Amino acid sequence: MSQLNQGSGVVSARLQANEYKDNFLDLHPPLDPHEALVAADRCYFCYEAPCVTSCPTDIDIPLFIRQIATGTPEASAKTILAQNILGGMCARVCPTETLCEEACVREIAEGKPVDIGRLQRFATDTLMQTGEHPFVRQAETGKTVAVVGAGPAGLACAHRLAMHGHAVRISDANLKAGGLNEFGIAAYKSTNEFAASEVDWLLKIGGIELDLGKTLGKDIYLEGLLEDFDAVFLGMGLGGVNELGLSGEEKDHVIDAVSFIHDLRQTKDLSTLPVGRHVVVIGGGMTAVDAAVQSKLLGAQNVHLVYRRGRERMNASKYEQDIAASRGVNIITNAEPTRIIGNGAVQEIEFSYTVDGLLGLQRTDDTFRLKADQVFKAIGQSLTGVPSLLKIDGRKIAVSENGKTSHAKIWAGGDCASHGDDLTVTAVAEGRDAAEDIHRTLMA
Amino acid sequence: MASLQSNFLGIKSPNPFWLASAPPTDKEYNVRRAFEAGWGGVVWKTLGSEGPPIVNVNGPRYGAIWGADRRLLGLNNIELITDRPLEINLREIKAVKRDYPDRAVVASLMVPCEEGAWKAILPLVEETGADGVELNFGCPHGMAERGMGSAVGQVPEYVEMVTRWVKETTRMPCIVKLTPNISDICQPAHAALKGGADAVSLINTITSVTGVDLDLMAPTPTIDGKGTHGGYCGPAVKPIALNMVAQIARNPITRDIPISGIGGVTNWRDAAEFMALGAGNVQVCTAAMTYGFKIVQEMISGLSEWMDEKQYTSIDQFIGGAVPNVTDWQYLNLNHVTKARINQDDCIKCGRCYAACEDTSHQAISITPDRIFEVKDDECVACNLCVNVCPVEGCITMETLPVGAMDERTGIPVSAEHGDWTTHPNNPSAQAAE
User: Fold this and answer.
1) pLDDT digits (tens, 9 = 90+) for B24-65
2) Domain that holds residue B77
3) What pLDDT digit, counting tens, does each position of A313-340 carry?
4) What is the distance between the terminal CA atoms of chain A, rounded to a whole angstrom?
């Protein structure tokens, strides 16, 4: 990519207009029907397939692939969506290389798994393009459930509850539903407003009311919800961003990666989005990679991703690391920031190399500095404003099986709950399972 | 390098790979391209009597079935014999044979089942310098309705009669092409022999309906809403063809008649298999129609390399090599005991062997929570299904138990003696062992 504007500082329009479009194309372009048939033919239809065991939502992968192979992609989509109503988004954002595709026997046999993620996308796209919703809402039960958070957990929970005939209201602090699908996923993983259209499609089940721009603890309160509804499901995201705790952290252009990605996803014209010439991202997870890669795609000249431990400890998968490397992001491991230097705006960051040994992570005297006119912090997020009537586990809402909290009428799932990975697909599974448990409880 | 030189009925060709009578050999242009590509011979697409040529449907003529990645496995056709005037075909045959004297050019013929019709066309073919004739008693579609093709081939008396007419009229070698659409292939082969045929070629296509268009509710290929049966060929028919070739090759009455093997030959190995079962050469059609004439280069190099490896210097050294080992079920050694063995290093843990054995066979494979699959010798009947469904070639094999070893399923040690059904105590008509 050619730099149009190579100047220092945080500026917009670093690239030619058409380069933005090219840079932010779909990471995995969809399979065409013939490619899908060829890919589907590679599935061995394993007995108690390891891919299914590895899927947090237990999608019957061999069955849906066989349905593609036999020319019924819409039946295939129903197999997927019956387990995972956000199967369309998960097909795009799941780290399949550490889930189903890692477990695929062909990965073990030949290092080349069946292209499960893209096959799932082929099936779900085919169905969703018809605009039809494949599920039917059961007769009204007269029961009501409040869902807080319109992200993957909340949407999955609400959909399943609505299917069972309950009346659901989803509240969300944002003015758009979707949660991290809408605001937190790298733009090249969810193109063409997919997150928003998936929400619209999901709501076609009926019986779900959206109540946007309502923050728990500010506009709505758990006590009130408990009074007005028969049950409550909490599926909020992590509102707080972890701080580095460094001197100089308050300097200009030292921001959290989450809000950068948020802004990027909501910007219609990417040429208006400013980015630094020398960008440093601190962290080792998916958010760090997404921020680093997208900075590069916006035209940053040098992008460093710095992680304090070794590469094997990074939460971003090897595959994500490779994406970063192939887009020109320099990954530095075993280095921890010690000081942010600058006069008003950040100019440099100082790092110490680290040793991760028996005594835990130790800084060494070996230091270096990176030029930086923009710094993204991506060292984790935390739950804020936990309702006081709930038991806490660590820094999250304590849940037991099926998302039960310490309160008999409250369930929780997704990033705010103490169980599971911080994956979209895990959140969907938790929302779905909590919904089934709520249903059983309400109908008992 | 081994010589692939072939001499079939005195017809010499540089290799045993001929193109079968079919669309690829319908005219001079194609046949010249085939010879340039390296084919050893052609059987020219079937000629009919003089007069107005037959007509074909105006499409579609073919239907197909496919395997993975749209690999063509079976092809069905409803094309008839050549629809070009006889004199043009004869002129072209003559020109091609003149320019390629080292290649085999055989004319396929199909005329009405009347002595006069056959005796009229043969001198015309002879005049072209063609190396021989092949009598098309095989095509199951279209012409059969008019009393030709398989309508003749299905009646051994007609086969014998027409063959005799031909042999009375011409000095050319006469190959009788057999239809597989009968119960016992040895009957028409015997009839051809009695009529004086120099060879038989088989199989012609198998009567088939490729599929059904579920929107039109009509068989495919569909012509204006209707379909008819066609003739099926391609890789899918090879096992049927191999069996019929072997039946003729081992039948005491027909075993001396030379055979030209046809039916799904796609590569050198297929050709070698037909020849091992007694075919003196092979004829190919569908593979050429799928991939073009160039495939013969792989067939030549492959057969030649295999022959070198086996130290065969001429094709005659392996033709018929497998015939003595084709037998009847009743003579198979029931005292031969094998057990499936799963190589754990090769196993990719797909579990297909388990599903197949547990659901549909003998419950002879165990599974552990960490997906280790093992054969239970006390249940395994050695059916080979696990070998067949395993996606990893060579991962599951059949191990022969040595003489004296205990067969855990039957509790009987493996006997050194041959023991088959003819002498088995359960056989009501068992003969006493000698």
Assistant:
1) 999 999 999 999 999 999 999 999 999 999 999 998 999 999
2) 6-325
3) 999 988 899 999 999 999 999 999 999 9
4) 61
| Amino acid at residue number B294 | K
In the block, tokens 């733009």 appear at A187
Average pLDDT over residues B182-203: 98
Residue B199 CB contacts under 8 Å (≥ 6 apart), including other chains: B8, B9, B173, B174, B175, B176, B257, B258, B259, B260, B280
Strand, helix or coil at A412?
Answer: strand
What is the residue whose two structure tokens read 């042999």? B167
CATH number of A33-129: 1.10.1060.10
Residues of B tagged active-site: 139
Of B68, B69, B349, the CB nearest to A105: B349
Instruction: Give strand ranges (E) for A186-258.
Output: 208-212, 231-234, 240-241, 254-256
Query: In this structure, what token pair is assigned to residue A407?
Result: 């309160």
Please name which of B330, B353, B361, B341 lies closest in space to residue B430, comparing C-alpha atoms: B330
CATH classification of the domain holding B396: 3.30.70.20
Specify the pLDDT at position A28: 80
CB count in 10 Å sphere of residue A262: 16
pTM over 0.90: no
Q: Tell me the fold of A17-25+241-380.
A: FAD/NAD(P)-binding domain (3.50.50)
Nearest CA among A252, A410, A211, A222 for reference residue A345:
A252
B70 part of contact set with chain A, CB < 8 Å? yes
Of A37, A41, A46, the CB nearest to B351: A46
Q: Which CATH class is domain A144-239+383-443?
A: alpha beta
Q: Which residue has the higher pLDDT, A277 or B70?
A: A277
B71 and A CB contact within 8 Å: no
Whole-number Å distance between alpha carbons of B208 and B416: 46
List, for chain A, all residue ranges whose pLDDT scores fall below the cut of 70. Answer: 1-5
Instruction: State yes or no: pLDDT of B12 exceeds 70.
Output: yes
Q: What is the pLDDT of residues A41-93, one digit of tens each?
A: 999 999 999 999 999 999 999 999 999 999 999 999 999 999 999 999 999 99
Nearest residue to A234 (alpha-carbon basis) of A220, A248, A245: A220
Same domain, residue pair B286 and B383: no
Q: What total of structural domains would you count in chain B? A: 2
On whether any CB of chain A is under 8 Å from the CB of B69, the answer is yes
Measure CB to CB from residue B351 to each of A38, A48, A109 and give the nearest one.
A48
Q: Which chain A positions have a beta carbon within 8 Å of B367's beta carbon?
A: 47
Chain B interface includes A409 (CB < 8 A): no
| Average pLDDT along chain B | 96
* Amino acid (one-letter) located at B346: D
Cα A7 from Cα A10, distance rounded (Å): 9
